[in-house]
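Customer escalation, tier 2.

The customer says the design service returned an amino acid string that "doesn't look like it belongs to this structure." They asked us to rerun it and document both sides in this ticket. The original structure tokens are below, unchanged.
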């Protein structure tokens, strides 16, 4: 197994944030679930190597790419990643390593106060209503437009 993908330090930060899995059934327990650390290794492998989930080497990370993808999906639904982000920011603030002067905000994730500005409404450039092209029984409106 590749220990350099998930260091002990990273695992100590992530492990408490992971949701508790339901216990296995007594009758028909099924296959043993893959280790959470192995799934995290698979996720980090995909992120670092830019490979698809099916190209994750199971013998290197300890689980298949599909298993890693499912854990990523489950952990995302459980809100693990925003909590990890908060933990890392708190550590940086505590150690004095976070320079707020160098921060950048992506506007796509910032709520516009009071709804933000609305674009100007489009005004009609032509007088009257547009001629209907579907309800004409004689086609006189179409003939008058083409003249």
């Amino acid at each position: 197994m590749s220990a350099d993908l998930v260091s002990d330090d990273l695992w100590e930060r992530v492990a408490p944030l992971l949701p508790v899995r339901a216990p296995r059934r007594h009758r028909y327990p099924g296959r043993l679930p893959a280790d959470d650390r192995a799934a995290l290794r698979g996720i980090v492998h995909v992120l670092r190597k830019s490979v698809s989930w099916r190209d994750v080497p199971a013998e290197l990370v300890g689980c298949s790419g599909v298993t890693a993808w499912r854990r990523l999906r489950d952990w995302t639904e459980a809100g693990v990643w925003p909590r990890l982000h908060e933990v890392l920011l708190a550590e940086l603030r505590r150690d004095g390593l976070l320079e707020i002067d160098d921060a950048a905000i992506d506007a796509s994730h910032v709520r516009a106060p009071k709804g933000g500005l609305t674009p100007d409404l489009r005004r009609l450039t032509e007088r009257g209503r547009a001629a209907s092209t579907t309800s004409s029984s004689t086609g006189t409106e179409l003939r008058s437009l083409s003249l």
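Tier 2 assessment: The sequence is consistent with the input. The longest helix spans residues 80-94. Residues 39 and 70 are 9 Å apart (CA to CA). Sent an explanation to the customer and offered a walkthrough call.
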